[in-house]
């Protein structure tokens, strides 16, 4: 296992979150969170259920617009530009890949699942699509298992395969940022490890936000990690520091040591 | 160790009893269908011939065939489908995929449910007022089909909306997350998976409109015409009205004739249903999750 390397101070900021608060009606989900995510790092977000982790992700790619009850304050700068200033949210979302807790194999063929996003934006020849599909499935460590049945239904694959299909689909967007929301919740340990290896490879090319409820997964993968607790960002730091006691807040140590959560 | 207790035995007996009861009810339900079909074939089977299907009625409706009525019904149902399916599917897509959840949407949904409950004779009178007189289409296929379409719209809308909502939200969210617009999501993922359900609605509509009599008898269907319709502005004979006429309105009709007409009418509905069901099963076998 490779040790995460601490990120140099001058690393380029991919995503800057400034004073972000989210509430659902009168219920507060996230309060005054400020943090920076650097280019080419895996940024872990840990915390128990109901800590605002998923809400945090939804505001980044503007999925909050689908919930009229969801109110967002503060700013999220994606490449220096507030995500709410993007005139075209579809262009923003197409640069951000998302992987959900439960695998979503769309009821299309395996091929069409991965080709869907390129097709949405058009302009690809059949040969281009073939290349994209093979490359993305290979990078998601699924190619060898499905190359002989690309026309099988994506929704009929096993859970672990579907999750890798979801990752391949996210990669087909050629994203700058990949957001994974507790991706291993419905995946067996072997597949989890394979996906973790994939993520380590991907770090060289893209920025990754890894929301997880497994603190050891954050420790294995994340360069830096934020600890969310009941809508508050308790701590942000180099991941290893969170586990070696160099923490600002007692609650962080209690959580990573498994005393609650 | 694993002896059945008295309670176990009692539960098993009750379970058997209920299964028997529900099975009996189901058998009771299909009994009328079997009796109707059997009677029609027995009484009317002898009437069916090439001439019966492909010639006009003669001798004051007491002899000859049903060709103008057969063609008329096909016209009426086809035009009604052409009008109501696009309209109903579009409305259902809007209500299911776009409309915000508010009092207006709820009011519209309520109105659609109520529309389904309006008696067909009321639809007929509405059709006379609106299509025959106000829009001045006269008594024509167009007016009759529009009336049938209005009557069938709720069926199409409800069936389509239900089948759209049966497509899991997670599929839509996956598409939205990758930058698909709502329309792209509907076209590429939602609609292909809702088609079989929408077809069910269309089947229901076909069956219902084929047999309807009241909505067409004032708006476009006539007692007798030897001519086949040339356009939607012509009047026409129709199977359902023809059955009504030969059963009750004309003296001296041979006893078997109405049975024959009814048999053809039912055969039309069953044929269209079977075709649609076969097509639906084909679609279902390809789309699964």
| Rg of chain A (CA only) | 18 Å
Biggest protein-protein interface?
A: A-B, 32 and 20 residues
Q: What overall form of chain A do the CA principal axes indicate?
A: globular
Low-confidence parts of chain A = none
**CATH class descriptor of the domain at 67-235 in chain B:** Mainly Alpha
Helix run count of chain B: 11
The CATH architecture classification of the domain at 67-235 in chain B is: Orthogonal Bundle
At CATH level 3, the topology of the domain at 67-235 in chain B is: MetI-like fold
Bin the strand percentage of chain A.
25-35%
User: What structural category characterises the helix and strand content of chain B?
Assistant: mainly alpha
Secondary structure: number of strands of chain B: 2
Strand adjacency order, main sheet of chain A? 6-7-8-3-9-10
Radius of gyration of chain B: 24 Å
**Main β sheet profile of chain A:** 6 strands, mixed
The share of residues in extended strands of chain B comes to under 5%
Largest sheet of chain B: 2 strands, antiparallel
- Strand arrangement within the widest β-sheet of chain B reads 1-2
Weakly predicted, low-confidence segments of chain B: none
Q: What's the overall average pLDDT of chain B, rounded?
A: 90
What's the helix and strand layout?
The complex is a heterodimer of chains A (261) and B (289).
Chain A: E1 13-24, E2 27-38, E3 42-46, H1 53-60, E4 70-78, E5 81-82, H2 89-94, E6 96-99, H3 110-121, H4 126-139, H5 143-146, H6 159-172, E7 177-181, H7 189-202, E8 207-212, H8 215-221, E9 224-229, E10 232-238, H9 239-243, H10 250-256
Parallel strand pairs in A: 3-8, 3-9, 6-7, 7-8
Antiparallel strand pairs in A: 1-2, 1-4, 4-5, 9-10
Chain B: H1 6-44, H2 50-54, E1 57-58, E2 63-64, H3 67-98, H4 103-116, H5 120-134, H6 141-165, H7 169-177, H8 182-211, H9 214-217, H10 239-249, H11 256-286
Antiparallel strand pairs in B: 1-2
Helix pairs in contact in B: 1-11, 3-6, 3-8, 3-10, 4-6, 5-6, 6-8, 7-8, 8-11, 10-11
């Amino acid at each position: 296992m490779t040790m995460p390397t601490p990120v140099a101070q001058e690393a380029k900021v991919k995503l800057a979150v400034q004073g972000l608060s989210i509430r659902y009606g009168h219920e507060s989900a996230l309060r005054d969170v400020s943090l920076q995510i650097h280019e080419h790092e895996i940024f872990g977000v840990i915390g128990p259920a109901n800590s605002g982790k998923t809400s945090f992700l939804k505001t980044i790619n503007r999925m909050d617009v689908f919930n009229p009850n969801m109110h967002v304050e503060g700013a999220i700068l994606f490449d220096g530009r507030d995500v709410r200033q993007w005139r075209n949210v579809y262009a923003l979302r197409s640069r951000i890949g998302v992987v959900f807790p439960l695998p979503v194999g769309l009821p299309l063929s395996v091929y069409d699942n991965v080709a869907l996003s390129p097709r949405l934006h058009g302009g690809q020849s059949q040969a281009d699509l073939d290349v994209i599909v093979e490359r993305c499935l290979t990078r998601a460590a699924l190619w060898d298992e499905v190359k002989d049945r690309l026309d099988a239904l994506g929704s009929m694959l096993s859970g672990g395969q579907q999750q890798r299909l979801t990752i391949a689909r996210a990669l087909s967007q050629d994203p700058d940022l990949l957001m994974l929301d507790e991706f291993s919740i419905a995946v067996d340990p072997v597949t989890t490890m394979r996906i973790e290896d994939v993520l380590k490879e991907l770090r060289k090319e893209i920025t990754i936000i890894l929301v997880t409820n497994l603190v050891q997964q954050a420790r294995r993968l994340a360069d830096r990690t934020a600890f969310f607790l009941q809508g508050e960002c308790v701590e942000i730091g180099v991941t290893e520091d969170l586990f070696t006691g160099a923490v600002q807040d007692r609650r962080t140590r209690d959580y990573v040591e498994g005393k609650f959560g | 160790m694993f002896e059945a207790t008295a309670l176990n035995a009692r539960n098993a007996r009750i379970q058997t009893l209920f299964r028997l009861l529900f099975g009996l009810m189901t058998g009771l339900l299909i009994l009328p269908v079997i009796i109707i079909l059997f009677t029609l074939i027995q009484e009317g089977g002898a009437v069916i011939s090439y001439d019966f299907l492909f010639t006009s009625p003669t001798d004051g409706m007491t002899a000859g065939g049903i060709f103008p009525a057969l063609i008329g019904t096909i016209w009426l149902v086809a035009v009604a489908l052409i009008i109501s399916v696009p309209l109903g599917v579009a409305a259902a897509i809007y209500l299911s995929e776009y409309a915000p959840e508010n009092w207006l949407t709820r009011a519209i949904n309520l109105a659609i449910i109520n529309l389904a409950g309006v008696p067909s004779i009321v639809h007929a009178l509405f059709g006379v007022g609106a299509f025959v007189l106000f829009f001045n289409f006269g008594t024509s296929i167009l007016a009759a089909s529009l009336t049938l379409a209005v009557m069938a719209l709720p069926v199409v809308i409800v069936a389509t909306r239900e089948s759209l909502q049966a497509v899991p939200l997670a599929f839509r969210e996956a598409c939205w997350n990758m930058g698909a617009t709502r329309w792209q999501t509907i076209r590429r993922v939602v609609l292909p998976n809702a088609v079989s359900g929408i077809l069910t609605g269309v089947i229901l509509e076909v069956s219902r409109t084929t047999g309807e009599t009241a909505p067409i008898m004032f708006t476009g269907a006539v007692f007798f015409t030897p001519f086949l319709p040339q356009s939607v502005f012509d009047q026409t004979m129709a199977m359902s009205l023809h059955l009504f006429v030969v059963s009750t309105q004309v003296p001296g009709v041979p006893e078997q004739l109405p049975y024959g007409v009814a048999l053809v009418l039912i055969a039309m509905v069953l044929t269209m249903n079977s075709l649609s069901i076969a097509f639906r099963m084909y679609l279902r076998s390809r789309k699964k999750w």
